[in-house]
Amino acid sequence: MPAQTFRLNGEDVTVDVEDDVRVLWVLRDLLGVVGPKYGCGINVCKACTSHVNGRAFNPCAVRVGDLGPDDEVTTIEGLPATVGAADGELHPMQEAWLERDVAQCGYCQPGQIMAAVALVRKVRREGRTITDADLDGIRNICRCGTYTRIREAIVEGESRM
Known about the structure:
Blueprint: E1 3-8, E2 11-16, H1 23-30, E3 50-52, E4 55-57, E5 72-74, H2 92-99, H3 109-125, H4 132-136, H5 147-160
Parallel strand pairs: 1-5
Antiparallel strand pairs: 1-2, 3-4, 3-5
Helix pairs in contact: 2-5, 3-5
């Protein structure tokens, strides 16, 4: 079996798995990283949203063989470290999520938060702030329907990042 090497939450990892195995299964089943959730497996619900090289991606739709040794995968577990948070501290977007009491069941929330952080980073690279149109563009599904609070938390989290 081929060895697949990439960076995960700041650490180099190597797993023996075929190239065509989806990154989500490598994360969850082989590496024990359970923040990215399995929802649909076809890149629709976005419960698994994580980051690769700082940008949102859905590991259910990416083959592990498409990652290289320099690719950095960040999951919700590694998100606080991206802003230098001390061990046990949260990322500002996670804090906003708690303060806005966004989560009900919580299943989709790691993916929602990762999508929100990627959106904030994108609009900042463009030299602007989040608009309603940007928020409308987030396609992560929340079956509990907390979209109003999600939008509020994203705006609040943006102000803290």
